[in-house]
Write a structure and sequence with these properties.
single chain, Structural Genomics Hypothetical 15.5 Kd Protein In mrcA-pckA Intergenic Region, Chain A, Pseudouridine synthase, three-stranded antiparallel sheet
Length: 289
């Protein structure tokens, strides 16, 4: 006898951690019965069917991705990332194409050849899978370094839009609350004075009768989950946030990276640019726009 996840990992030749995640989605059957428990005991006598998700046709996907491109030149690509798309692969967690795959297809060929194993090539910042909006990526290593330095030195100005559950106490305020990774649940972050400095400015744009509010957010630092943690701490979690608030299955996180101001290199020297990603249709509908 063996565990189902162990058996399938060996049979399919894929990481056990990936197999566990896939089993929980209902892609495994034992003797005609769907099994979602990775620890289920199985034997060679069992009829085990495993339908691993297939990777979409890369050429077709890359062609479709062009619809998300806001701006492109010899050095940068600016995209409006849709909610649900990963920025880059997380090891073997999922068989899917990402923003990074498109960036690689547009990267300097010579530099790409010497960085084959880098699955984050050209990625200088990121958005959570569930967050939509504007992202800037580099098409060569020199530009990647130039853009990354601006993020590190906090020279990039960002504007987000969010629909939250609850009304903030003030119409406009600065949230200056340090955050750190949770010791109990390392995948999430918590407010803690011993954590890293995290600062967010917000302004209420609209209030709704049902107790929701539409906010403009301007993060001055770029901590992981910063906006989600800050708003949840204030008692106004972002609508659709299943981690820091409440969400029904299928709800999207109502957080959109709306605007990005940054300097980009050019033949005549660096130029300051502002890139804007329009709100997606589902977000506009949610806020009554």
């Amino acid at each position: 006898m063996a565990r189902l996840d162990t058996y399938l990992a060996e049979r399919e030749g894929i990481p056990r951690s990936l197999v566990q995640k896939l089993i929980k989605t209902g892609v495994a059957m034992v003797n005609g019965e769907v099994v979602t428990r990775p620890a289920r005991s199985v034997s060679e006598a069992d009829n085990i069917v495993f339908q691993s998700p297939s990777t979409p046709d890369e050429g077709e996907w890359l062609a479709r991705f062009s619809q998300y491109v806001i701006y492109i030149d010899d050095n940068v690509i600016v995209v409006n990332k849709p909610a649900g798309m990963l920025v880059h692969a997380k090891g073997g967690v999922a068989k899917e194409l990402t923003v990074a795959d498109y960036v690689r297809s547009q990267f300097d060929p010579d530099e790409l050849a010497s960085n084959v194993g880098n699955n984050r090539l050209g990625i200088v910042h990121r958005l959570d899978r569930t967050t939509s909006g504007v992202m800037i990526c580099a098409r060569n290593l020199t530009t990647a370094s130039y853009l990354s330095r601006q993020f590190a030195e906090r020279k990039v100005k960002k504007v987000y839009l969010a629909l939250v559950s609850g009304l903030p106490r003030h119409q406009a305020a600065r949230i200056n609350l340090s955050i750190r990774r949770s010791r109990q649940t390392p995948a999430i972050f918590v407010v803690d004075g011993s954590g890293k400095v995290a600062i967010t400015d917000y302004t209420v744009q609209k209030e709704y009768p049902d107790g929701r509010a539409f906010l403009e957010l301007r993060p001055l630092t770029g901590r992981t989950h910063q906006l989600r943690v800050h708003l949840a701490y204030l008692g106004c979690p972002i609508v659709g946030d299943a981690v820091y608030g409440h969400a029904h299955y299928g709800d999207r996180l109502m957080l959109h990276a709306y605007q990005l101001e940054i300097s980009i290199p050019g033949q005549d020297g660096a130029k300051r640019r502002i890139f804007t990603a329009p709100l997606p249709a589902d977000f506009q509908e949610a806020i009554g726009g």
